[in-house]
Amino acid sequence: MRFPPRITRIGAAAAVLSALLVGGTVTATPAAAAVGSICYGALPSQAHNTLDLIAQGGPYPYSQDGTVFQNREGILPSQSSGYYHEYTVITPGSSTRGARRIVTGEENREDYYTADHYASFDLINYSC
């Protein structure tokens, strides 16, 4: 199995540990609570294909792939405009782009998977 040259960020666990070590408080935000985690191996094979295309820089099957993801739902951590980009995960049998996407965060190089067109997201864990 080939893993794309992307890394996940430490995320919420690091924030909790940091706050506890310096005697701070930990508060959960709705966005942080809404983002789950998924093992790379648990992704559908089409998501692996999309991640491979992202690592290669394309070409992508849809003109919308690689465009800025606005995060209008507010589920992903808040970032400046242009931080997130979206890519289609092909859904077999669908005559449209379907609901599955990979959304990348460029600076920290995190990858999120959504199977329900942005209603929920899972941070991809490449180490399991």
What would you note in describing this structure?
It comes from Streptomyces regalis. Keywords: Hydrolase, Nuclease, Signal. InterPro entries: N1-like, Ribonuclease/ribotoxin. The protein is of the alpha+beta class. It has one domain: Microbial ribonucleases (Nuclear Transport Factor 2, Chain: A, Roll). The protein is built from three helices and six strands, in the order ααβαβββββ. A six-stranded mixed sheet has the order 1-6-5-4-3-2. It is globular. The protein starts with 11 loop residues before the first helix and ends with a strand. The N terminus is likely disordered.
What is the CATH topology? Answer: Nuclear Transport Factor 2, Chain: A
Number of DSSP-assigned strands:
6
Number of self-contained structural domains: 1
| Secondary structure: helix percent | 10-25%
Mean pLDDT: 81
The CATH H-level homologous superfamily: Microbial ribonucleases
State the shape: globular
Report the CATH C-level class: Alpha Beta
Strand order of the main beta sheet, please? 1-6-5-4-3-2
**Percent of residues in β-strands:** 15-25%
Structural class: alpha+beta
- In terms of per-residue confidence, which ranges show pLDDT below 50 for 5 or more consecutive residues? 1-33
If you compute it from the alpha carbons, what radius of gyration comes out, rounded to the nearest whole angstrom? 15 Å
Number of helices: 3
Helix and strand pattern = HHEHEEEEE
Q: What gap, in angstroms, lies between the N and C termini?
A: 12 Å
Major sheet? 6 strands, mixed
The CATH architecture can be named as Roll
